[in-house]
From TrEMBL:
Organism: Janibacter alittae
Signal peptide (UniProt feature, chain positions): 1-19
Segments of this protein annotated with the region Disordered: 86-105
Keyword list, A-Z: Signal
Top-rank lineage group of the source organism: Bacteria
Protein name as annotated: Lipoprotein
């Protein structure tokens, strides 16, 4: 006799043990980009701190509005991967990254160097005990700073030092973050795919909390399904801009837009996959599928590619974006 089994949230939402420092409020879209310094940093450390606090305050306000905020209102505050994540969260009601507290211990870690555009600020803060990395970008002289990336750090992760804030750092905002970064991201994606390759790719570490949890959860989910079906997980890059900051000792810290796809395929022993997670039901517009369920998450990967040694993931944001079923 065929068995009927529920399809629980754990099978698709992939809760991860990420810990660190968070993000807070944001006020961004209404202010002109700060005046640059022609020598060294594009803006002063004090002004960068004011910008970061303002942008995070406005972002928190828009998040609190949830689906009530219009796409135009979100675009006035967010850009890049953060805009994609905010739109996905508004549709799915899956705001996993922030606990809702205000920004604590806000600190600017680096700013872009020189007078060219776009300009960027890298900051960190806490949101109810979780450490966050924030990237703020002003695309042009007549554009305000917006929240470009907003990533919770993995437990135990750290970011190598950038150049002193008043000196500024080399920053690249582009679809191509460079060969070293592209190769490292590709290798990481291959290594955390489920089922994984027999030999882990070289040049990148899989010992960070996020990669470890990703691999363990995928294996556990596939095992839980048994002969009722199979679970597969893959990571893919997105044709969109990354933000990459040069580190003081060489190498880069890069924020890369990604998509994670989780797929469950039922065997002929399973009559129906019942979906219990409300966010998945909302984007799928049904509570059950018969043959296959595929779920996509909007991700932003924060990766350190040092001058020597293995690349390491230091943080990931992850929001349910879409789902399809058969």
């Amino acid at each position: 006799m065929s068995r009927r089994t529920p399809f629980v949230a754990l099978a698709v939402s992939l809760p991860l043990a990420l810990a660190g420092c968070g993000a807070g409020p944001a006020v961004v879209g209404m202010h002109a980009a700060p005046t640059e310094s022609s020598d060294g940093a594009s803006i002063t450390p004090e002004r960068a701190t004011d910008v970061a606090a303002s942008v995070l305050e406005e972002a928190a306000t828009v998040r609190e509005d949830g689906g009530k905020a219009s796409p135009e209102e979100r675009a006035a505050v967010f850009s890049g991967p953060a805009l994609r994540a905010a739109g996905a969260a508004a549709e799915s009601k899956d705001e996993q990254n922030h606990a809702g507290g205000g920004a604590e211990d806000l600190q600017v870690l680096g700013v872009s160097r020189g007078t060219d555009w776009p300009r960027a600020v890298l900051a960190t803060s806490q949101d109810e005990g979780t450490q966050f990395l924030h990237v703020l970008v002003a695309a042009a002289a007549d554009q305000p700073y917006r929240l470009f990336a907003d990533v919770p750090m993995a437990a135990g992760a750290s970011v190598p030092a950038l150049a002193p804030v008043d000196e500024g750092s080399s920053v690249t905002i582009a679809k191509d973050p460079g060969t070293d970064v592209t190769t490292a991201v590709r290798s990481w994606s291959e290594g955390v795919t489920y089922q994984p390759p027999k030999k882990a790719p070289e040049g990148v570490s899989f010992d960070d909390a996020f990669s470890t949890a990703l691999q363990k959860n995928a294996k556990d989910k596939d095992k839980d399904l048994g002969d009722l079906g199979s679970y597969r997980q893959k990571q893919s890059t997105v044709d969109a801009a990354s933000a990459s900051f040069e580190l003081a000792a060489g190498g880069r810290l890069t924020f890369v837009p990604m998509t994670r796809t989780d797929t469950i395929t039922a065997s002929d022993k399973l009559k129906v996959l019942k979906i219990e997670d409300p966010a998945i039901r909302r984007v799928l517009d049904t509570d059950k599928v018969k043959k296959k369920l595929s779920i996509e998450h909007a991700e932003t990967l924060a990766m350190v590619t040092p001058a020597t040694g293995d690349a390491t993931v230091v943080g990931v944001s992850d929001v349910l974006e879409s789902a399809t079923g058969e």
